[in-house]
Amino acid sequence: MARAFDTLLPLPLPTLFSRRYAALPAIREVRDQGGEWSIVGQTRTIVLADRGTMRETLVSLDRPTSFGYRIDGVHGPMRPLASSIDGLWTFEKAGTGVRITWSWSVHPSSSATSLLMPAFGRMWQGYARQALERLEGLLLS
Q1: Residue 97 burial by CB count (10 A; 0-12/13-18/19+): exposed, middle or buried?
Q2: Beta strand segments in the chain, E
Q3: What are 96-106's pLDDT values in tens digits?
Q4: Fewer CB under 10 Å: which end of the chain, C or N?
Q5: Residues 6+ apart with CB under 8 A from 44
Q6: How many whole angstroms separate alpha carbon 86 and alpha carbon 107?
């Protein structure tokens, strides 16, 4: 469990989110991160392949069981869809391995765009599946 946590928390985001899924772009780079991603309150700027940006804040950290984040300051093509995203990664023993769960709440930018959330959610699930498959490969290698 601790190995999975310690692998994922500092993992460079472009390594995990290297591929586009439907309308959701890959992460190209991370800027403004001071040191290793490991301190509650720490922020960084995520730069997407479509040139959009978002600010991510580490909001909770309970090694080796969970860490949470908040994404806001969305700029670029995703801005009309989401004003913020709250996410939580959890880690629990499962037999001889670990079960990693990634949950999120996407907050629409307006009541009009809330109608698009089911489609956005399906895209996000595909994006998440790609990331979790990539993480599994990294943990098993």
Answers
A1: exposed
A2: 27-31, 43-48, 53-62, 66-75, 82-94, 97-108
A3: 999 999 999 99
A4: C
A5: 30, 31, 32, 33, 37, 55, 56
A6: 8
pTM of the model: 0.93
- Dihedrals phi, psi of 41, to nearest 5 degrees: 100, -15
Alpha carbons 119 and 111: distance in angstroms, whole number: 15
What are the start-end ranges of the H helices in the chain? Answer: 2-8, 13-16, 117-140
Dist. CA 90–CA 64, nearest whole Å:
9
Cα 27 to Cα 51: distance, rounded to the nearest angstrom: 9
Please report the pLDDT score of residue 31 as a whole number.
97
Q: What is the CATH number of the domain that holds 12?
A: 3.30.530.20
Domain count, the chain: 1
